[in-house]
Amino acid sequence: MSLAKGFVVAAPRSGSGKTLVTLGLLAALRRRGLIVAPAKTGPDYIDPAFLGLAAGREAINLDPWAMSSTQVQSLAAQHATGADLLVVEGVMGLFDAAADGHGSTGDLAETLGLPVIFVVDADRHSQSVAPLVAGFAHWRPGVRVAGVILNRVASSRHERMLVTALKATGLPLLGAVPRRNELVVPERHLGLTLPGELPAFSTFLDAAAEAIGDFIDLDALLGMATPVADHDTLPSALPPLGQRMAIARDAAFAFLYPHLLDGWRAAGAELSFFSPLADEAPSSDADAVLLPGGYPELHGRTLSVASAFHAGLFAARDRGALIYGECGGFMALGEALVDKDGVSHAMSGLLPVVTRIDRPKRVLGYRRLLHESALPWPSGLNGHEFHYSSAKQTGLPPLFEALDAEGIRQLPMGGQLGRVMGSYAHVIAAA
Predict the structure, then answer these.
(1) In a domain, 77, yes or no
(2) Pair 251, 383 in one domain
(3) Euclidean distance between CA atoms 316 and 367, whole angstroms
(4) How many domains does the chain have?
(5) Judgement on whether residues 30 and 57 belong to the same structural domain of the protein
(6) What pLDDT is attached to residue 181?
(7) Of 175, 126, 196, which Cα lies nearest the Cα of 154?
(8) What's the pLDDT score for residue 196?
(9) Where is this site: Increases nucleophilicity of active site Cys (predicted)?
(10) What would the 3-class secondary structure string for 323-354 be?
(11) Which domain holds residue 22?
């Protein structure tokens, strides 16, 4: 089976319209009958959910900071197999990276050897767009900017000024998307809303596909795509938490990276899924229970009365199953969760922890994690942290010692009580 061609969608900065353009491209190319494999650069759960819906095919994360080059290349090759096109959405600006200077969209494009389609927000730009584009295009020899897409163009006159200026760069202009109110995706406290919570998402996606189809030269764009390199090495994966893993999955626990699930299945683990919001308990024969991250703070009351879910967790603990919670899952393992209105909701109570989001403070960044626990993973892990809630715990041994991307020691993270454990960290790969 042949591998796809591919390209990376990037921009000078966040807010330029990468997600809009990528979604529109996926939907428009899908309308043409192409099989498009979507991917997102770096640690992100929300954008891949949108990308997957637009492509009709699950999106994966390719993280050049947390993953080795070999893992990035093998994951990309595996994901692209059987597709016509691999489309990777970048993160932040093209060369924006972690504090140590690694992990940018440019790093990913160079690692994969794929061309960059450069999206520029033209609002409040005229002739100065040319040196902006030229600067990015010539900044790093190993990163090839193949073409430019202008976003939020105000008028025909504005477009003519931009087109004339860009001729001096020698880079092909693939098209200009006009400024339209229907081409804006609303945001929420942890980023974009989940697509299932956007009643008009299908309408938005149709508008994005129409705009991209009308204003972008898709044939020229497809001509810029280059083959995804074949890679014989299978993607390295973290070992499964158990042979029979029960995994929470619903609107409150939606954040889990596909490459982990695929790796666990490939290792022979039996995966089952349950919904705490529907008051479902984990499978009674599970030897490991995973509560992923998500938005439990939006469902505090429902989770507080989920008696079958709570009882199932206690039963799993009592039979010696490993129970592990990440971020939102860690919050659900605690005694209580205080929501944004200051209302306290009882959680499962497996860990002596109280979390609250009524005094929000954003915490985010890559983490290098060290542990000595029952987790069947290497002692060194790479992950990330992104939350607005905080945790109060007393006398609970931490789960992880943590360093940030620069190697600066952070406060110990999470807690463990026997084979019950969790933290705010989202683990991505072995260090």
Answers:
(1) yes
(2) yes
(3) 29
(4) 2
(5) yes
(6) 79
(7) 126
(8) 62
(9) 426
(10) EEEECHHHHHHCCEEECCCCCEEECCCCCCEE
(11) 5-227
> Quick check: is 45 catalytic?
no
Report the share of the chain in percent with pLDDT over 90.
87
Residue 192 is predicted with a pLDDT of 46
* Backbone phi, psi, residue 164, to 5°: -60, -45
Say yes or no: 84 and 203 in one domain.
yes
pLDDT of 193 reads 54
Residues 202 and 266 both lie in one domain: no
Name the nearest CA neighbour of 21 among 152, 124, 143, 202.
152
Separation CA 324–CA 239 (nearest Å): 14
Per DSSP, the three-state class of 231 is coil
Q: What's the token pair of residue 399?
A: 């789960």
**Shared-domain flag, residues 210 and 298:** no
The pLDDT tens digits for 68-113 are 999 999 999 999 999 999 999 999 999 999 999 999 999 999 999 9
Q: How far is Cα 428 from Cα 383, in angstroms, rounded to an integer? A: 5
Residue 395: predicted pLDDT:
86
Q: Which of 105, 102, 108 is nearest to 119 (CA)?
A: 105
- Report if residue 90 sits inside a domain: yes
Regarding whether 221 and 253 lie in a shared domain, the answer is: no
Among residues 117, 261, 327, 391, the one annotated as catalytic is 327
Where does a domain end: 187, 202, 227?
A: 227
Residues 218 and 250 in one domain: no
Domain end call among 197, 227, 257: 227
Q: Are 46 and 192 in contact (CB under 8 A)?
A: yes
Low pLDDT (below 70) residues in the chain: 1-3, 185-199
The token pair that represents 234 in the structure block: 């299978």
Domain-located, residue 232: no
CATH number of the domain encompassing residue 163: 3.40.50.300
User: CA–CA separation, 190 vs 296, rounded Å?
Assistant: 13
Residue 290 is encoded by which pair of tokens? Answer: 């995973």
pLDDT, tens digit (0-9, with 9 covering 90-100), for 19-68: 999 999 999 999 999 999 999 999 999 889 989 999 999 999 999 999 99
Distance CA 254, CA 244 (A): 20
